[in-house]
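Example record

One chain of 88 residues, shown exactly as stored in the release files.
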Amino acid sequence: MPHRTQHGPSTPDSTVGEQATTRYGMPHSLLIVSFVLAGTVLACTGKETTDILTLLLGCGGIGATVLITASGGRRLVLAVARGLLLSR
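Predicted structure tokens for this chain:
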């Protein structure tokens, strides 16, 4: 008789065939595409690479800060801000 492990039910999972939820989706794809597109447009207009990277880095940092704050990570934002202010 085969040995049955305790990893889960022996019947197929009820979610088989349904779309699995992931953390990466269309909003993330659009964000990445928009950053690449913005960098390309700025490069075509004659901006310097350092200016483009600084702008996109600032936009990404602001977006990440807003996301962390909105998701309840206020302590993390305060700790990072304190670390940045004290490092100067």
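Notes: The chain is about 60% helix and 0% strand.
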